[in-house]
Write a structure and sequence with these properties.
The chain is built from 13 helices and no strands. The protein is mostly helical.
Length: 341
């Protein structure tokens, strides 16, 4: 009799687990997702930040973003880690867009209209993919830290502050990518302006002047977004000085990009030269090599754009910071530009 009682006491919890199998499974999956997300925030992201192979970080994030979505579906708190995953995954597709742009410029130089048109379409489709990921980074930032607006969220740790900064970058980049994709992705039109306002929630000196650089980039792009007395170009110049002190040079990228959009040729060239000199004089800390690698890649495309338009080939190896000979103006046929907008 006692043996039967003991057997019943063993089978009862097993039977209960079987009856609640789905619930148990969700609990295990949710807990696993929470543990994994916490591990990536505390250990994985710092490891990626120290890598100087940006393409590896992009590919890893492109793959892992989908994995974390499966944990989000069962209730895991993966919002914060998803901010970083989707930001870097967006850069994966931005790289594809930049490569298609290079091929487009080469085709335009050689007068191959059909190839140029095909590459332009592929470029815009790649920007669509980048925009989809960057807007998710921005949205996950708001899910993890709350809606950005008049008040600042509680950013308890350095990891929180970094991920919040990543989300702001996602908001800005998503708008730029959406425009480049011919508006194939719907992005909140106030994302950039709100990101500029929320940048005030971060310590500008601590975060390499990047919050101020974001504000400056938005003020020069979105009419009426600057506060009274605010000057976007001056803000970016100040952010560069702060970044140089800590070996972070992303401010040059934003300055060069905005100058390129505004057809400020001399400022574009001085930004590229400044970036090259700053990397030599103010080396990046080892724990921030990924940001430096991202910056170098974006500076490279701006340089390649100049060289391809003038000579039909990319920046010569080791030639970043140099420019085509004086008199080598862009040789793209204006009629082709009208044919392949």
């Amino acid at each position: 009799m006692k043996r039967n009682i003991r057997m019943n006491s063993l089978w009862l919890p097993l039977l209960t687990c079987c009856l609640l199998a789905t619930g148990c499974s969700h609990f295990i999956q949710r807990t696993t997702g929470n543990v994994l997300a916490d591990h990536v925030v505390k250990n994985g992201i710092p490891s990626l930040m120290g890598s100087n192979i940006d393409t590896l970080a992009y590919a890893t994030s492109e793959a892992d973003a989908a994995l974390f979505e499966t944990f989000t579906a069962v209730g895991s708190r993966t919002e914060k880690v998803s901010v970083a995953m989707y930001l870097l995954a967006g850069f994966y597709w931005a790289n594809q867009a930049y490569e298609h742009e290079r091929h487009y410029l080469r085709a335009m130089y050689t007068g191959n209209a059909a190839e140029a048109q095909d590459e332009r379409i592929a470029e815009r489709n790649a920007w669509k993919e980048a925009a989809l990921r960057w807007v998710l980074s921005y949205e996950y930032m708001q899910r993890g830290f709350g809606k950005i607006g008049e008040t600042c969220p509680r950013l308890r740790t350095e990891s929180d502050q970094l991920l919040f900064l990543f989300g702001l970058l996602g908001g800005v980049e998503s708008l730029i990518a959406s425009v480049s994709s011919m508006h194939q992705v719907t992005v909140p039109m106030d994302a950039a302006v709100k990101s500029a306002q929320a940048a005030n929630c971060l310590d500008n000196d601590k975060w390499w002047g990047l919050p101020q650089a974001i504000q400056g980039a938005i003020w020069t792009t979105v009419p009426g977004s600057a506060p009274k007395g605010g000057d976007g170009w001056q803000a970016m110049a100040q952010s560069i000085e702060i970044g140089n002190r800590s070996g972070m040079h992303l401010g040059y990228v934003l300055q060069a990009t905005m100058a390129d959009n505004a057809n400020k040729t001399e400022l574009v060239r001085s930004s590229l030269n400044g970036f090259v000199d700053a990397r030599r004089q103010h080396p990046v800390p080892e724990n921030l090599r990924l940001m430096d690698s991202i910056s170098a890649g974006m500076i490279q495309i701006i340089s390649d754009r100049i060289w391809l338009q003038a000579t039909g080939h990319r920046t010569p190896v080791g030639g970043l910071g140099s420019f085509p000979e004086t008199g080598e103006e862009p040789r793209i046929d204006p009629s082709l530009e009208q044919l392949v907008p």
